[in-house]
Design brief:
Blueprint lengths: L4 H13 L16 H8 L4 E4 L10 H16 L3 E4 L5 H11 L6 H10 L5 H7 L7 H24 L10 E5 L15 H9 L2 E9 L16 H8 L3 H4 L3 E8 L4 H20 L1
Length: 274
């Protein structure tokens, strides 16, 4: 949502300096911490690399740029670990259930108030689930908290070779670059962080290169969604399209994530300029 990471950081810092928790009761009273931001910039980081969410494998350009980032960050002195997507499919399934807890009443009311017809994919969403009871909704929330706790425990229990905690994850944002209209079918790489209430920042890291980003013809897709989305990959059509990755931190870690994104972006730019 900005032309640079510096602008994102400036905007976030300025917003928190306005103490929004004095205006909105839903805001947490957590001031911006220059100390956390500066400390993250000043030291080697421990970065978990998640290449695949276990449901849909990313297209070749995404994999290539993530692999490149991993090697450049390791060469720059950061600790790199492989992060397994344990529980991701369950988290995504849970969020899908939240979409229809009211049987689509909220969306239906809003669309009908505008007097316009439903888009086909919106209408299909409304028919996916029935309205649930308050008790069933409480049970859904309990499942959410349990998944949040399990992921938090796993993150907090990690210790690196020198006893250091995991700082951030570096993952795909989407499994593909831009695609044709209505070809977006899987957003699990971002949806999972919404359920966990984690902080994430997206940074551009390169472009598709049709001469390099060839499809692996030997790969056997694991499910129907993956099969469909891999059929959309066209290196010639996508040549030159931008590729992005996301930096993910835990809840309310905006300073750490923005600083880590700056560290990662600089490492990639320095390699490009040498």
């Amino acid at each position: 949502m900005a032309r640079s990471l510096g602008t994102l950081t400036l905007a976030m810092r300025a917003l928190l300096l306005l103490t929004p928790w004095t205006l909105d009761p839903k805001c947490q009273p957590v001031p911006w911490s220059d100390e956390v931001y500066a400390h993250t910039l000043s030291r080697p980081l421990t970065i978990g690399i998640m290449t695949d969410d276990g449901v849909v494998r990313p297209h070749p350009p995404i994999e290539r740029h993530l692999a490149r980032a991993k090697e450049l960050l390791r060469a720059a002195g950061h600790t790199i670990v492989e992060w397994e997507p344990i529980g991701h499919a369950d988290i995504v399934q849970l969020m899908d259930e939240y979409y229809t807890v009211d049987g689509g009443e909220d969306i239906r009311t809003a669309v009908e108030a505008g007097g316009e017809s439903f888009l086909p994919h919106v209408e299909a969403l409304l028919g996916r689930g029935k309205k649930i009871s308050v008790f069933e909704y409480w049970a859904l929330n309990r499942r959410k908290v349990a998944l949040q706790k399990a992921y938090m425990d796993r993150w907090n229990e990690y210790r690196g070779p020198e006893g250091q905690r995991l700082d951030v994850l570096l993952t795909p944002v989407m499994l593909h670059t831009a695609v044709k209209h209505r070809q977006t079918r899987w957003v699990g790489y971002t949806k999972v962080w919404n359920v966990l209430d984690y902080t994430a920042a997206v940074i551009p890291v390169g472009k598709v290169d049709e001469g390099i980003d060839k499809i692996d013809e030997s790969y056997e897709c694991r499910n129907a969604v993956e099969q469909e989305l891999w059929s959309y990959y066209d290196p010639k059509l996508m040549n030159g399209l931008p590729v992005a990755l996301q930096v993910v931190g835990q809840r309310l870690e905006e300073e750490k994530v923005l600083a880590a994104a700056d560290v990662i972006e600089r490492a990639l730019l320095e390699a490009k300029n040498t």
